[in-house]
Specification:
Rossmann fold; Helicase, Ruva Protein, domain 3; 2 domains; five-stranded parallel β-sheet; EC 1.3.1.76
């Protein structure tokens, strides 16, 4: 049983060994997380070529050697050659996070199927049992949590920052957090107006208490 975590890989060195479609899919996810990516492969897909041209990553046009791993914090072996992937696994240091695409048992982390909606991230993993099932669940969740829900989560973030800065009373904070996170609040859709009304009601209540 794995221990789920969210890693901040922004500006962290990531090595991807392989230049095929599997590597390309891994790379797009890493770019979303703002990782510093180096690809080692004799050939790469046209998609990766475009990323190289756009200076989104570094490509070393060569076969893998253990020296390629020196600066990497995260290493992903995504070639279609099991011997190469095995060589990557053997070269990994204890402090490195490594994912072998065709050998979950040799990996110390797995990349889940992911749904992203703004600040909302939902990860689905079957622990290597069935990536196909993980993708099926991901598609269901994408329908359940659409782009509007992503905007709602972004709205909640902005509200939370405002409340933390301007509302001193702990009980009032909790009440506001609970109100804007309520499912009915989300479904009504008029989030900004509803939030302003909640704040106005809170102010009226405070004034009433002071007068008492």
């Amino acid at each position: 049983m794995g221990y789920p975590i969210m890693l901040n890989v922004a500006n962290q060195s990531v090595l991807v060994v392989g230049g095929g479609k599997v590597a390309e899919r891994k790379i797009y996810g890493l770019l979303e997380a703002k990782a510093k990516i180096t690809v080692v492969a004799p050939t790469i897909t046209t998609g990766i070529e475009q990323l190289v041209a756009d200076k989104k990553l570094i490509w070393r046009q060569k076969t893998f050697s253990p020296d390629d791993m020196k600066e990497a914090w995260i290493v992903i072996a995504a070639t279609n050659n099991r011997a190469v992937n095995e060589a990557v696994a053997k070269a990994a240091k204890p402090y490195q996070l490594i994912n072998i695409a065709d050998d979950p048992e040799r990996s110390n982390f797995h990349v889940p199927a992911v749904v992203r909606r703004g600040r909302l991230t939902i990860a689905i993993s079957t622990g290597g049992a069935s990536p196909t099932i993980a993708q099926q669940i991901r598609r269901r969740l994408e329908e359940l949590y659409d782009d509007d829900y992503g905007r709602y989560i972004d709205f909640l973030y902005e509200c939370r920052q405002w409340i933390l800065r301007h509302v001193r009373d702990e009980q009032k904070r909790k009440a506001l957090f609970k109100a804007i996170a309520d499912e009915s609040f989300c479904k009504r859709g008029n989030w900004e107006e509803e939030f302003e009304q909640l704040l106005e009601n809170a102010m009226k209540e405070e004034i009433r208490r002071k007068e008492e």
